[in-house]
Amino acid sequence: MSATGRWHWIVCLHPKTNIDTVARYRSLVGENLEFSEDDNILDVFPRADVMVSDTSSALSEFLLWQKPVVTFKNRRPGPELIDIDDPAVLESAIERALQRPTGLMAAIREYTDAIHPARDGRASERVLAAVDEFIAEGSDKLRKKPLNLWRNWRVRRRLAGLG
């Protein structure tokens, strides 16, 4: 698909990808396909209009950019993804993603609001404020963890190699 010149591809593979697979993708580098050596995939996100993947934690991060994702046999496909199970329909799925259909974009917004409702860039401030508040109030208000003898016994058996 990169040889058609229709789209520019940026290939980012997981750092633990088999070296033979990495070598095969590197061999495809050309005018319309680049292989990202960047360890920080977040640096690639602003340059991409659509992500194509399978099941990856990076999907949620990419969706936070309010950009479509095409997945192949995703383990948990939802309305926020364009999930396919036949490689022959990849091109049409990408075309659909690039059109940014209203229903898909609404599903992406709903999904991202659910996983990260406050995207104002002040998350660290809120975490630090919560830590300061916890330190100021002390741990006296915390409820004690309930005694769970059954769970403790099962964990100890497992750790001892007994089951």
Could you list some keywords that capture this structure?
alpha/beta; two-stranded parallel ribbon; three-stranded parallel beta sheet; 163 residues; Rossmann fold; 6 helices; 5 strands
The CATH superfamily of the domain at 2-115 is known as: Glycogen Phosphorylase B
State which percent range the strand residues make up: 5-15%
Please state the second-level CATH architecture of the domain at 2-115.
3-Layer(aba) Sandwich
Distance between the termini: 51 Å
And the CATH topology of the domain at 2-115?
A: Rossmann fold
Extract low-pLDDT stretches: none
Order of helices and strands: EHEEHEEHHHH
Strand order of the largest sheet: 3-4-5
> Rg from C-alpha positions?
22 Å
Number of DSSP helices? 6
Oligomeric status of the shown chains? single chain
Structural class computed from helices and strand pairing: alpha/beta
Task: Describe it.
There is one protein chain. With 163 residues, the chain is an alpha/beta fold. The chain has a domain at 2-115: Glycogen Phosphorylase B (Rossmann fold), CATH 3.40.50.2000. The chain contains 6 helices and 5 strands. The strands form 2 sheets. A 3-stranded parallel sheet has the order 3-4-5. The radius of gyration is 22 Å and the shape is extended.
